[in-house]
Automatic annotation (TrEMBL):
This is Activator of Hsp90 ATPase homologue 1/2-like C-terminal domain-containing protein. It comes from the Bacteria. Gene3D superfamilies: 3.30.530.20. Belongs to the AHA1 family. Residues 31-173 form the Activator of Hsp90 ATPase homologue 1/2-like C-terminal domain. SUPFAM superfamilies: Bet v1-like.
Length: 180
């Protein structure tokens, strides 16, 4: 064990961890109208189709997409292990923005600490995720994901996880009309 600049002991593997992590930002573009892209975020059924990286699936989603709405997304790996995320949707501006808190959760949707979720590094008790949507023409749209609170040493893994989720989103959007 080593002592961090804050005076806390931490594993040497994660000695670079900091509660003051840099902001993770990912930009993605899709060949669909803005309304169709935003609709992929609008229902639990849509999220079940694409949210989480390869090898993981959402087995339960509660999603109240409204200002002050609560959410819980539970995921399982194909090894049947489970964990999830929960929080509040702080702001929704249709076809423009979704701002949500981000906390680890147990299978009942109750917030748990990063340590209880077996996650290395220093995590804040609550992080934030923001999706900002933009039209890029009749049949093209984009969003920017901004995520606060990911320890610096886990940023590459988080980017990879989001990239895999967004590839699943791309396939979802390319499929037949989803009936939103």
């Amino acid at each position: 064990m080593e002592i961090s600049p804050s005076g806390r002991k931490q594993d040497a593997k994660h000695k670079g961890s900091t509660p003051h992590s840099k902001l993770l930002v990912i930009d993605r573009q899709f060949d669909v109208p803005l309304e169709k892209l935003f609709a992929a975020f609008s229902s639990a059924e849509a999220l079940k189709r694409w949210w989480w990286p390869e090898g993981i699936y959402a087995d339960h989603i509660d999603w109240e997409l409204r200002d002050g709405g609560k959410y819980f997304i539970n995921m399982k790996g194909y090894d049947q292990s489970a964990s999830g995320m929960a929080g509040w949707i702080e702001e929704v501006v249709k076809n423009e923005r979704i701002v949500m808190t981000d906390q680890f959760a147990n299978e009942k949707g109750e917030p748990i600490s990063a340590k209880e979720a077996n996650m290395p590094g220093e995590w804040p008790a609550k992080g934030y995720i923001t999706f900002e949507f933009e039209s890029r023409g009749k049949d093209r749209s984009a969003f920017r994901l901004s995520q606060e609170g990911i320890p610096n040493e886990l940023q590459a893994e988080c980017i990879q996880g989001w990239a895999e989720s967004f590839e699943k989103l791309k396939k979802y959007l390319a499929g037949p009309a989803q009936g939103h």
